[in-house]
Amino acid sequence: MANIALRVWNPPNPYLTQYRELLGEPPSVELEVYQEKAKTILSRNNSPDIGFRWSLNPYRGCFHACAYCYARPTHEYLGFGAGTDFERRIIVKRNAPALLEKTLKSRGWKKETIMFSGVTDCYQPLEAAWKLTRGCLEACVRHSNPAAIITKSLLIQRDKDVLVPLAQKADVHISISIPFHDETVARAIEPGAPTVNRRFETLKLLADEGLSVGIGVAPVIPGLNEQDIPLLLKRAKACGAKFAFYTPLRLPGSVRSVFLKRIAEAMPLRARKIESHIRQARSGALNDSRFGFRFHAQGVHWQSTVEQLWQIWTSRLGLNQELPTRQNLMAENRVPEEEKQLKFTW
How far apart are the C-alpha atoms of 249 and 299, rounded to whole Å? Predict the structure, then answer.
């Protein structure tokens, strides 16, 4: 399992007219860092599936190399691949803090919540050197602008001195993404991410600082990690989590090839069963890209296992009692009603 994703491999890029297959053993994957002077730093979301309007991503690509990452196809728009290119050819938006500062100063800005890591992890390893996420959070502190963060990284611990003042001046909610309880499974599917134990330690440390912290069991992969839900929620609660959320696995575009290849290599005896359960939850398909359906699964197994486990354990543990509903978040962020009804595909 330690060798997964260490050799160059990318599925065919649908935006390129040519695809080359290597003869012989592929070369080792090397980290390549590209600098981008971005024109804008905030992305505006119109999807009715998402409880925030604005997201911020200082990096393109992600070193964590999670096989299921729905953002992989975004690398293909740049002429890169959705496989190891996404994991090791990372683009840094070097002017991200300056762009955000300019936005927050503008008269038209309404101090809406900004979601950090709407696409890739804003605390992936390169953040240790570039400090782009920290710079953006410092801008939020200066302008008393609320933020929300999703991350797997331990590096967020470094920024306690920024997060605590932000929570006092505005608001900040932090979600630690922990979809697996078994370290072996986590290492196979998320080879570049921190261990499960270290992520729980991070959750506890932030909660001990008085910050609003929760767990993201995302994604739930039918046939693989639904049975982890009680263990993950109980442990998160013990560490100080106030809320929890989950999302079903999404496999848009080239993510399907990457994910299926990874599970076939890492757990060949379970791969066929996992794929079967995924299809059962998606009406026979591997993905449903329609807005309003992307974050919903169905089927007897999903309803009787995932949904029931979630309802029972979040209620029993008292999680989400103070968490705004997705609909309320949309209203707070002033997304017009006509935008909520839009049906796009991705």
Answer: 14
